[in-house]
Structure formats: structure tokens, C-alpha cells
Design brief:
By secondary structure, this protein is α+β, with helices and mostly antiparallel strands. Helix content is 15%, strand content 33%. InterPro entries: ConA-like_dom_sf, EGF, Fibrinogen-like_C, Fibrinogen_a/b/g_C_dom, Laminin_G, Neurexin-like, Neurexin-related_CASP.
Length: 737
Amino acid sequence: SAIYELSCEAYKHLGKTSNYYWIDPDGSGTLGPLKVYCNMTEDKVWTTVYHDLQMQTSVGGNSPEKLSVLQLNYSASMDQISAITSSAEYCEQFISYSCKMSRLLNTPEGNPYTWWVGKANEKHYYWGGSGPGIQKCACGIERNCTDPKYYCNCDADYKQWRKDSGMLSYKEHLPVSQVVVGDLDRPGSEAKVSVGPVRCQGDRNYWNAASFVTSSSYLHFSTFQGETSADISFYFKTSASDGVFLENLGNTDFIKLELKSATEVSFSFDVGNGPVEIVVRSPNPLNDDQWHRVNAERNVKQASLQVDQLPLEVRKAPTEGHTRLELYSQLYVGAAGGQRGFLGCIRSLRMNGVTLDLEERAKVTPGVKPGCSGHCTSYGMYCANGGKCVEKYNGYSCDCSKTAYDGPFCIKDVGAFFEEGQWLRYNFHSPGTSMKDLVSRTLLSSADPEITAPDLNLNKEELSFSFSTTKSPCVLLYVSSYTPDFMAVLVKPNGNLQIRYNLGGTKEPYNIDIDHRNMANGQPHTVNVTRNGRDIVLQLDHYPPTSYSLPATSDIQFNSPKALFLGKVIEIGKIDQDIYKYSTPGFTGCLSRVQFNQIAPLKAALRPTNASSHVHIQGELVESNCGASPLTIPPMSAATDPWHLDSASADFPYNGQAIGDGVNRNSAIIGGVIAVVIFTILCTLVFLIRYMFRHKGTYHTNEAKGAESAESADAAIMNNDPNFTETIDESKKEWLI
């Protein structure tokens, strides 16, 4: 049975993030698994296969040879890559030719000087950005070549460097296995060739599905050829308690898969020694309208059946007797021969490595509909942090718009680095509208419909964010109002955190002080504050939540909220003295995934959304995940890592060791030594500066006695949390590849 998934698409639907994975595009067929890079973007999944040709490979330079042949060796066989390209919706490969007195295709009539060899060893005379049968480069199609007489920049034969590049996207011709360069035999002729990895997107087989609407409906296909070995896999989803998935008959031989009851799947066959049945019993009902995977295999030695991750059921074949499965009838998917057929959805049905096109056949069959709906019941749990699962015809996606996160599963923190004096204001109502502005009212209120007071007073708030800073005091977040009411999260001069509420009815604002923990220690901290009427629950980092209560005299409505500030408080009118003091000169450090009820101010500032009109920024806000809490950072993927060069978009020298997991030992040791030296110098500098300014400062940092233990508690998370150490290792690995 397959230990690897069939494609990157399958890994995405197990909730996996971008990384290298082993895939097995033809199941237990002859191809075997291969390692690819899966890049999971918001709405697409890209499968990338690398080769060993360096970017900008030089050819020529007075070489006597007439032709120079560049061979590309991939991390997979041509058949394996063909299996990926044939099931993909779209594939592309970047190709670039930089030339100095070296012509590329020359004229549309003449023979081309340079060509590339693709799948099945065919020669191709078109270049990146153009298409089959058109002997042109991209500039020839866009009509902006260096010399309008020619259809490629290089064909102008100039003595200066020129370039022709673009995407090859006719997937039936990919991948590029050779580039043959011809115009190099004149003095001064030089050329450089770059070819990117093959990138494919989508998997038509994975979502190829049909819905069986009546219990007598079926699809039929030609006879299944599985005489000595049969490998059948598919996904099903149903609310019915029984039904036949598929059946193929012979004279006496047969093969059949069915749902026998709500908890039993049966695989039965007869090769001439009498019928054999293997049953897998599930502890939970299988008719729960969720996707379940079935994998049945039979060969001359044994037969097996697996459902989801339940234990594999195996039956050995008799040592004597018949071994060949001889079938004559058509293969029926659904109701066969008057039996009660399957009601529900079957998708990605593969028989001996070939995906049956259920969708096409369903289009012309009464009682069966192409495609399937309701993927969110199975996959919605992967949309994290309040992301909403959205049904798509082939699959689903996560809508992160009401969250402070983005990425395919709403788990990527959106954060920024604030320099001293930078600030962000989020106005709760749009400029030029009344206080009754509806958009803000719905976003500001928690998800509860009852909060629709005409001038919007809040009885409850939910606030969550993470931050890191080394400077105290500062104001991390401040919510102002059209009344004296406000809410603030501060770091006091001694580095301790304070939550301050002023809702009226009390002489002084109500403060929650978290003593004995220095929060200005440069490490990421998470803060979650929930208020419901008088009750406030605060959770800090990984510590257990603590409950507080507003004083009995305090008002419990936050009246007419006006704006939310990050970095610094710039508000007209009377302002709390401490807040004014702590807010100067401003916050320095990182804030991440800030969310106040349903408003995500940082995300609105950094991602253009319909809420962006509410945001005003002072200074240049730099996106960064430096404030992201270590408990949520996944290992940095090549897609997000600024040090990982994307070879398709840049002509950088590109290391052929893209797939090697091993990191060069020497460079790792040298890198480590340099890092230690730099770190020591920095520590010494910090110590000296702190020592010099210690007596000049306007206040002393009288840290509370328990601060040391908090430092070690932070160190403890970093040491104990596997994700955090993995992050460091992963990113180091990326740098050194």
C-alpha cells in the first residue's frame, strides 16, 4: 500500500505546509516515489522538480566546436516527471539565453542555431514566452525586439550582451532535457544559458469525482486488466449505510468493492479457487459525509485492504491453485447487475496507476453528476485561527480575511517591525461617515448580533497579539474613544506588563499588573485579553489564564470607541498622564497578528483589503515575523525565506544540490564560528552601552525579583518547544544550501 501521497495536492489536504515531500504519482505502479518541493500558496499548490544545470552556465568563448550540448539531469526520471505533468492543470519552466554575438533562432525561415530537447527526445524551435510551431522568442510575439527585422533579441547579433527569456508552458513538451547551442564558432561569440526547475500546479486526478444520485445509477468503463496484480484506490463520501463501489465480472471470476454496512468495507474476488472476502471494520461510522480513503491490492501472493489509517487487513493466497483473474464484462462503478449501488461521491479512482475519468463519463450518464460538493466537512479543520473554509468545485480554500493571519491555512502571522516614532492608527469608522458606520460596527462587535447600540458601546472585547521589545517603558496598544473611556496594554519602566482599563465610574483607571516577569527581554510574548462585562481573563504566553474583575463601581460599557493605536498614541484631547509619558518617544520592536474583536489593524495596513481605508501610518512600516510567538512559527519555507533564491524569477548562480538534505559540514562549522564571534562582540557592546548609560538615565530599571525566573522560563520555552528549535535549524539549513 502507498506510504507516500500521490501528489503535492494530497499533502496540502492533509494540512501540510510548503516543504520537500516524497510523492508517488502512480500509486504502486512501476515508477516508484520521487522527492519534490511542494509550495502551498493560498489558492494553488505548486510541485517543483529540480535539475543540476547551474543558472547562467557559460558556453562558447572561441570554442572550436560547432555545437555545445548542455545536458540537464533531474532529481527524478523522465517517466516520473511525465506522470506529474500529465495530471497537472498547468506547468511551466523558465528558460533564458544571454548572448554576445551569438544568434538564437535567427530568422523564421532559416534553420535555428539553438534548440532545446523536451519530453520523448523531441527537438523544439521556439523559446520561452512563445509557443509550439512559432519560431520566435517572447520579444517577437510582443514586437519589441532589439532589431525589428528579427524575432529574438539575440538574433540582432550585437557585440553587447542581450537576453531572450521567458516561460515554456506547453506542458506536453516539458521538461527540458537538453539545450543545444549552435552559434559559437566566431571570435567573440559568447552565451549563457539558464533553465529553471519544472513547476506544475493543480492535480486533475486528485479531484476527479462523480456524485451518484440514485442507487441504480452507475458508470461503466472497459474491462479491468488485472490478471496477476490489481491495485485499486479511491476516496468516498456518503451518508448511506451500504452500496456497491465497483464490480467487474468474468465467467466465474469476479472482483468487487462495497460498503457492506455503516462500519464495514469489503473487498471480494474469485480467481477460480472460490470466493475470497476481506473486510475492514471501522470503530466509527463511515457514512458520516466525510472523505474516506480505500486501498485494495491483490497479487499472486496475497491480497490486502486498507481504509483510512485503520490497520491493514491481509489474506495470503493459497500455495496451489489458480492465480489469474480473468474478467470479461465491463467495469461497473456504482450499481451493478441489479444490486443496490453506491449513493454519494467517489473521487480519484485509480486502477493499476491509471485514474479513471469519472467526471467526463458522468457528464453523459443519467443519475450521475460530475464533481462533488462539500469538501469543507472533511478539510475545514485545517483552516486555523478563525479562518473560514470556502467550498470550491475542486477542493476548498481558507478565507483568512477576518483573521490577523494569512497563508493557505491562516497560520502565517502578519506582523511588522516598528522603529522609534513610527505609529499606526486604525479608525473604527471610515472618514466621512457617521458613527453608525455599519462595517465597523459589525467588525467591532464580537460575533454577537445583539451589540447594535446606535452609538456602539462595547460590553465585551477580545484582544490578542504577540510582541517583542528590549525597550521599556512603552505603550504596546491603545484604544481611544469619543468619551474619557480607554483601554491600553503597556510595558512599565521595570519591564512588567500592565493592562489598563478606564470605563468610568472609578476615580483611577483599573490596572492589571503582571509583576515578576520582564517582558522587555527581546523574546516574543503573546497576550490574550478577553473582557465580558465585569469579567476579564488574561492569558500570557504559555502560562495558565488568570481571571480579574472590574471594581463594583466601574461602568462595564466601553463607550464610543474611536481608534486603535500601535507604536505611539497620537490622540487629541485629554490623555492619561502615564500613557503620555510611556508613549514618548515611542515603541521600538515587533508586533504581530494584532486582533481586536474582528479587526486586524496590522494586516489591514500590510495587505490591501477593504479595511485599508481605516488605517493611517506614520513612517515606513516593514513587514516582519520577528514578533511572532515561537509556539506558532512553522519552519521557514523556501517560499518565505528571503535568503532562498527562487531560481525561476532570478538569474542567480544556483546550486545543483537543491535537493540534498545534507549541509556542507565545513561551511556549517565556519558559519557557526563567525556567528559566535559576532554574537560575543554584540554582547560586549550592549553591556558597555548599558553600563555607560546606567547613571545618566532618568530612571532605574528596578526589575522585580522574579524577573530572572521569567528569563529562564522564556529560555525554557525555546529549549522545550520543538517547533522553535526546528525553526532555527531549518533556516540555517536554507542559508547554507
